[in-house]
Specification:
The chain is an alpha/beta fold and 145 residues long. The protein has a domain of 93 residues: Ribosomal Protein L13p, Chain: A. The protein contains five helices and six strands. The strands form two sheets. It has a four-stranded parallel β-sheet with strand order 5-2-1-6, with helices on one face.
């Protein structure tokens, strides 16, 4: 056996922290990149690209997230129903009124891996429009950005 074997952390017993981030007044892109980094586990010394070693994140005040420049007037989200001519578009203003959590989730999801590992990582993200969240039992720490 070689003496230069890479040692990997024990993923089963890896401690995961819970973080709370207040999105009020924060820029969407900068917030999303920090969230994606923590969900992947890049802030830990045991980071491995092919394992899910990240932490849980709770976002509060999602409706108060800030967009820079003219994005509030010009940015549009597209989706397709699967039928012919079924392209739907939604402006950021409308999305912020109806589903403010989807704005952050879409931005973070675009920064995660596009495979089953990325789909597992996005489940550790909890987003709430208001100031309250039901994850008080996990004793989340406040993350300052």
């Amino acid at each position: 056996m070689s003496k230069y074997l890479t040692k990997y952390p024990d993923i089963v017993n890896l401690p995961r922290k819970w973080w709370v981030i207040d999105a009020e007044g924060l820029a969407l892109g900068r917030l999303s990149s920090k969230i994606a980094s923590v969900l992947r586990g890049k802030h830990k010394e045991c980071y491995t690209p092919f394992w899910d070693c990240g932490d849980f994140i709770v976002i509060i005040n999602a409706e108060k997230v800030m967009l820079t420049g003219n994005k509030m007037d010009q940015k549009v989200y597209y989706r397709h129903t699967g039928y012919i001519g079924g392209l739907k578009e939604t402006s950021v203003k409308r999305m912020l009124e109806n589903h403010p959590d989807r704005i952050i989730k879409t931005a973070v999801k675009g920064m995660l891996p596009k495979n089953r590992l990325g789909r597992k990582m996005i489940t550790k993200l909890k987003i709430y429009a208001g100031n309250e969240h039901p994850h008080g039992a996990q004793a989340p720490a406040v993350m300052e950005l």
